[in-house]
Every structure is written in C-alpha cells, then in structure tokens.
Specification:
Blueprint lengths: L1 H4 L2 H15 L5 H17 L2 H12 L16 E4 L18 H16 L5 E4 L8 H11 L7 E4 L5 H8 L6 E6 L4 H10 L3 E6 L17 H23 L3
Parallel strand pairs: 1-2, 1-4, 2-3, 4-5
C-alpha cells in the first residue's frame, strides 16, 4: 500500500483530479496553492528533487556516528531483502542489489579486522532465510565459517536489533545503505547498543546532464525510497520513546 501512498505519480493524479474539479470556481489563493503543489510534485518526479530528498535523508548520520577505519567491534550486516524466493542457501541471484552491496561492504570491513565477528541479519518470508544466503555469500568471499553468525528470526530492522540484544557486546558496526542507516542506528540504540555506521552505498547522484531536471521513473522511485525512510525514521524515533 505504501508504494501507492508515497509515489509522486499518485500525488500527480490526485492533483489533476482536484485541479480539474475546483479550478473554475476556486479563489485566487486556492489556485496559487494548486500551482505551488503542482510544481512541488513535478520537482519530486525529477532527479533534482529526488536526489535533494535523498541527500537530506543520508545526512541523518553525523560524522561522529561513523565507524573508524580501524575497529574490532562485531560487524552487523542488515539484509536488503530478496528479489525472489531462494531455492537454496547459495541462490545468490535471489538477493536484491542492495543486499549484494551490503554484504560486500561488510566483508570489506571484516578484512580490515579479520578477528571480528561478521553477523548477517535478516529473516524474511521464505523457508531459506535472507541471512542464510548472505552468510553463504560471505563464505564464498573468504570469511571463515567460525567468524560468521546469522540472525534469521527478524522481519525488519527494529526486530533485528532486538533479536541481537544480549548476544553481542554493546559496541557494533552496523552496515547498510546510506539511506537506511539513520533509521538503523535508532533501532540499535533503542535496543541498548552503541552502534557506529558503515555505509555500503549511497543513492545520491550529483547533477549531470539536462536529464537531471526532467521527470524520470527512476527519480520517482528514488523519491519513494526517501519518503519511506523519512517516515520509518519518525516511526522508530516514536517507538524508541517507550
């Protein structure tokens, strides 16, 4: 449902319906408001607007919250989900690109401190769990089995943090995408950890050609991602008050 509610395309269709229904009999102030709303919606359909939102979301991690280059704390890699149901623990094609990038970044972090524990977190709706596939991939990339641990019961980041509570020391390195890390840090702090952020990748793209200012499907998808993370961060902040 959130795919529809957070999509600029949905907002655009609603805007057209409201404008068509009210324009002829609307007051000047209402027409001005409609124009402003239309411009904002159009902007969020362009890479310019979408990347501005992404940059704002990713700035939610302060420099002091980022992991140092040399650190021996356990590394917690948060799954980025699956494209399809995995047929086996080594069915890597079932992983989303985000999951690939996160586990790759986690392995790179582990190579800086090979004595550290690499924890793959994520359950999912299928019999073969997300973390199981991630762990298999980490072994393929050279991490010894005795340095790997999996958490396979959770269905979201909040549950992952709570499932790991009491099984790891307070200090942990949390590996995820730049857009997801602000929300992830809140979840782990609420669970009693002292997390630092290790960024696997960023969704932000700097201005380039003229296409940066034109509506694009990829920009609308990026706007949806940014809004989803913004609402998720607000939700986690509220839950952490309990």
């Amino acid at each position: 449902m959130h795919h529809l509610l957070l999509s600029p395309m949905t907002w655009g269709l609603l805007w057209l319906a409201v404008a068509w229904w009210t324009w002829s009999r609307a007051r000047t102030a209402w027409r001005a408001l409609l124009v402003v709303a239309g411009v904002v919606i159009l902007l969020l359909c362009t890479p310019l607007g979408a990347n501005a939102l992404i940059r704002w979301v990713e700035s939610g991690v302060a420099p002091a919250q980022r992991c140092a280059a040399q650190d021996d704390a356990p590394i917690v890699v948060l799954s980025g989900g699956l494209e399809d149901e995995p047929r086996a623990s080594d069915d890597y094609i079932a992983l989303t690109p985000s999951s690939w990038r996160r586990v790759r970044s986690g392995v790179e972090s582990w190579r800086r401190s090979p004595q550290a524990l690499l924890v793959l977190a994520g359950g999912g709706p299928f019999e073969t769990r997300e973390a199981t596939v991630l762990a298999s991939l980490a072994r393929e990339w050279g991490v010894p089995a005795d340095r790997i641990r999996t958490e396979t019961a959770s269905t979201n980041t909040w549950e992952s943090a709570r499932a790991l509570r009491g099984t790891l020391p307070p200090r942990v390195r949390v590996v995820s995408s730049a857009t997801h890390l602000p929300r992830a840090l809140i979840a782990f702090e609420s669970a009693g950890f002292q997390p630092c952020a290790w960024t696997s990748d960023s969704a932000y793209v700097a201005p380039g050609s003229v296409g940066y200012f034109l509506p694009q499907l990829s920009a609308m998808q990026k706007t949806h991602l940014a809004l989803y993370e913004m609402l998720g961060t607000l939700s986690y902040r509220w839950r952490s008050r309990d």
